[in-house]
Amino acid sequence: DIVMTQSPFSLAVSEGEMVTINCKSSQSLLSSGNQKNYLAWYQQKPGQSPKLLIYYASTRQSGVPDRFIGSGSGTDFTLTISDVQAEDLADYYCLQHYSYLTFGSGTKLEIK
Amino acid sequence: EVQLVESGGGLVQPGRSLKLSCAASGFTFSNYYMAWVRQAPKKGLEWVATISTSGSRTYYPDSVKGRFTISRDNAKSSLYLQMNSLKSEDTATYYCARHGGEQPPYYFDYWGQGVMVTVSS
What we know:
The complex is a heterodimer of chains A (112) and B (121). Chain A has strands at 4-7, 10-13, 19-25, 39-44, 51-55, 59-60, 68-73, 76-81, 90-96, 102-103, 107-111. Chain A has 112 residues and is mostly beta strands. In chain A, the strands form two sheets. In chain A, strands 2, 4, 5, 6, 9, 10 and 11 form a seven-stranded mixed sheet that branches. A four-stranded antiparallel sheet of chain A has the order 1-3-8-7, with no helix packed on it. In chain A, strand 9 and strand 10 form a beta hairpin. Chain A is globular, with a radius of gyration of 13 Å. Chain A starts with a strand and ends with a strand. With 121 residues, chain B is mainly β. In chain B, strands 2, 4, 5, 6, 9, 10 and 11 form a seven-stranded mixed sheet that branches. Chain B has a four-stranded antiparallel sheet with strand order 1-3-8-7, with no helix packed on it.
């Protein structure tokens, strides 16, 4: 089974700052067939269901602000949120879908 | 607009059964793999089950394999989760989710609002 290690557990930033959230997989998520990384990022605001932000590691879902940037390949991935807004208060999860489906443990983003 | 609406949750005793339903609309249901994902109170997300477009293939993690059964009715645009031999650790909000992507294996692109299942005596 693929294990996803997500960090940090939580972080608090002021509006306008930048944050990075990391996910490391126990094995490569890069498909040799199509050169895509099977890694997605989700945002879950308080009391709501998760929302897809990024898929294939770096492709932004339609309607997602361009301050959300996904990067990385193989086993190491990063979600960067630049110019953090108050509305970005949420839990963030990574998901590997290379072999079955496994979520990271989540990162709680708080706004100072 | 894609809509996924779950129903069937509630309080159930350990060892008993419960069946969840998900009504889908806003897309051609029969063209998509579908799934259930759960979230225990104040905890993270856990994939529970996936079903192929025709229903001929199903996938489960070890934590529910043999106890849960995912099924679908494409004529009714509906997804189901039959949960047997329920345990306290199955207490969670259960989300219906659509699989998206160019080819399998797929990520989740749309989620329902969730339904709460509480397993307790």
